[in-house]
Write a structure and sequence with these properties.
By secondary structure, the chain is mainly alpha-helical. It is 57% helix and 6% strand.
Length: 200
C-alpha cells in the first residue's frame, strides 16, 4: 500500500488479509517501511523482497495485532479455515480425496464426511460475520471460543454439530449414488469452496 506525504515523498507498507476474510477488520499491516521519491520506487523495492522477509513482516504484523485488545478476527473466518483443513484432511492430501477408488467404501465414507463439512463451511460463509458471532454465542450458551486454547476443537465441534444436524444433507447411500455418477462435480465444488477464492 502506498500514499504520498506533504513533502512530495511516498510512503509504503504491507497489508495482509486472510484468504477467508471478507472484512477489513481482519487485515493486519506493517508500519510504514518505505519512504521514497516516487511510488514506482516503492513498488520496485517491494517486488525485490524475498519470501522469507515477507513472512517475517507478516509474523511481526500478526504479533503486533495480537497485542491490541478487542481486535479479534471474526469467528466465521476462523471456522471456515478450521473446516477447510478438516475437510481436506478427510478427503485426502490433494483436497479432492481418493476419488479414483470409488469402489472402496472406507474412502467413500471419508469423502462423505468431507462433503458434510463442506456443506457446513458453505453455510457459514453465507452468514454475516457479526450474526455468526452471535449465533455461536447462543449455541455455546455464552461460553466463548479461544482458538489458542486446548478447548477450541471441542467448542468448534459443538458448533459444527449443531449446524450440521439442521442442514438437509443426504444420507450416505444417496450421496454415494450421486457422487459415483458425477465425481468431477464434487471435486470442482470442493476446489471452488476452499481454493477458488469465491463461493460455488
Amino acid at each position: 500500500m502506498t500514499f504520498p506525504s506533504e513533502a512530495n515523498r511516498w510512503h509504503g507498507y504491507f497489508s495482509f488479509r486472510p484468504s477467508h476474510s471478507e472484512v477489513e477488520a481482519d487485515e493486519v499491516r506493517t508500519t510504514d517501511i518505505f519512504l521514497e521519491a516516487s511510488e514506482t520506487a516503492i513498488h520496485d523495492k517491494a517486488r525485490s523482497l524475498g519470501r522469507p522477509l515477507l513472512r517475517g513482516l507478516l509474523d511481526s504484523a500478526l504479533h503486533t495485532a495480537a497485542k491490541v485488545p478487542g481486535d479479534e478476527p471474526h469467528l466465521r473466518g476462523r471456522f471456515r479455515t478450521l473446516l477447510a483443513e478438516s475437510s481436506s484432511e478427510l478427503a485426502g492430501a490433494d483436497g479432492v480425496g481418493v476419488a479414483a477408488s470409488v469402489d472402496r467404501t472406507p474412502d467413500l465414507r471419508s469423502l462423505y464426511e468431507s462433503y458434510r463439512l463442506d456443506q457446513v463451511c458453505h453455510f457459514i460463509c453465507l452468514v454475516d460475520p457479526d450474526d455468526f458471532d452471535g449465533a455461536v454465542d447462543r449455541i455455546l450458551d455464552g461460553a466463548s471460543i479461544d482458538f489458542r486454547s486446548r478447548d477450541r476443537v471441542q467448542f468448534a465441534r459443538m458448533v459444527v454439530d449443531y449446524i450440521e444436524e439442521r442442514l438437509p444433507l443426504p444420507d450416505f447411500e444417496s450421496w454415494v449414488a450421486d457422487y459415483t455418477a458425477r465425481p468431477d462435480t464434487y471435486r470442482l465444488y470442493a476446489h471452488t469452496l476452499h481454493r477458488g477464492g469465491r463461493l460455488p
